Structure prediction request, 571 residues.
Amino acid sequence: MSRSKLRIIGAISLLVVAGLYLTQATLAVSVPSTSLKTHPASSDGRDGWFKTIPKITLESDDATAVTYYSWDTPDPKQIYKYAIKAPQGKHTLYYYSGTGAGADESIKQKVFKVDSWRPSFIIKAPKHRKHVRGPLRIKVRAYDPDVSAQSSGLSELRLYMGSRLLAKKKASVYTFKVRTRYIKPGKRRFRVLVKDKAGNKRGRSRHYFIDNKKPVIKTVAVEPSVPSVRSRATVFFKLADRVSRRIFATVQIRKIDGTLVSRSKRRRRMGKKLVFQSMKMPEQEGAYIYRIIARDYAGNRQVKTAKFKVENPWNLNNVKNHLFEISKVIGVRDEGTAAEHRTADYIEGKLRAFGYGTERQAFRLSNGRLSYNVIARKTGTDPGRQFVIGAHYDSQPPSPGANDNGTGSSLLLELARTMKGKKIRPTLIFVWFGAEERIGGVRGNEHFGSRHFVSLMGPSERASTIGMISVDMVGVGHFFHVRSTQRGPMTLVNDILNFAGQNGHAVSYRRDYGASDHLDFELAGIPSAWLEWRVDNLFHTPADNYERIQWDAVDITGRFLSNYLLNRFGG
Prediction:
């Protein structure tokens, strides 16, 4: 081969080799490169977790290149156009850029951990603002709301009281037990905090009243101090509690051996104030115990007892004995006769036996005879006021007057005996009126005793007399009435009706037209009332005898009147 041909071949070889080098150099420069940016720039949670969903920007250095990406698949085919958001959970982003002429970037990848969901939880514990005594148990059940289970997972549970950390636990279900005996009583705020591994947290607060102290019962008193059987007495006491504003209280009456006799309903009461409970007394006299049970909202319980004595001052047998003497032994008691005078002697003798000083008021009747009012006084602690209780002791011939008005006279004797040892504020004046019945059948020719008594009262005495009750015909009938003519003040009548309603007595009002000794007191402007049982169709007849008396009616009237006087004027 000639030298010239060899030169030509060598030159061609050099050109080929140079072209190859140039081609490789050109290809190396045109391969694109993709950069990845996030906002936020780095993880804002713990252990590389994003609590904020990051926005991802893919940017190629070749403007002509196309960027591809995919999640969790190492074969990116989705074209990147604008910023993308990372999905919840742990995922891998695959991406690369290519020109389409075979100069493609090798596939890149980046792992993203995203958990923007705050954990949730349920508190199974006492209700909000609950009063708590003893250990406080707060059961917490926490969970992650991401149903795909791609969350970071729960990290721990925490319990705070105020700003103080009480306990923490790495669990999803846990019961915190707080020993409240070392916590100062009062309103306290407890806060449950749940965290996940990404650093998300959620808290919830509840207020509880910590109360491990028993309520305090103070100032136990009974009014009257020595109540009567079947009457009503009032228990006064004070309740106090360091935490609870309201306290539940129950009052019981028990025998000395602990047997329950009666109890009040469970009532809500304000603490730190004097409260009271009206209780019906037992039917038998003897020693008893008031048992006051106080409970606060937390369930703390305090008990206080006080002994008291129930008396039976009212004795129906005494009334029966008096009525037997008046209606059967003495019998018909016509005005101004020896039988009426004998009755006045009997009454006066009994009063002196009870320890009373007595007084007789003599007055002349329209038929010329002489009759008497028998008077006994019990001086009260307020002698400037007086209260009159009266009953007439005569009868209308030919009646022995067992009901009209042996019952009233006999009842008044037993009432005077029972009131003798009692502490009463106004002076009680017991009056047995003579000559109440009508003489000769003439209208207006009656009420001589009560008319004479009122006529002797001066203006000052009338002003100081706060009331008058006439007890007349209380032994026969089915209806217990308080009566007046409505020609004077109605204050006493209304007060009697109120007392009866408050204490469960079936007493009703019925107007009358002046058929008893209260009339002249009422006309004098003194509050007056007449107690009567109706209906008796045999009064003023011989059939009005001892055997027909309904003793339940007499007993009810006597106990009612005794309780009324002690309740309104006792002490």
In short: The longest strand covers residues 186-196. The two ends are 158 Å apart (CA to CA). The chain is about 20% helix and 40% strand. The mean pLDDT is 89.
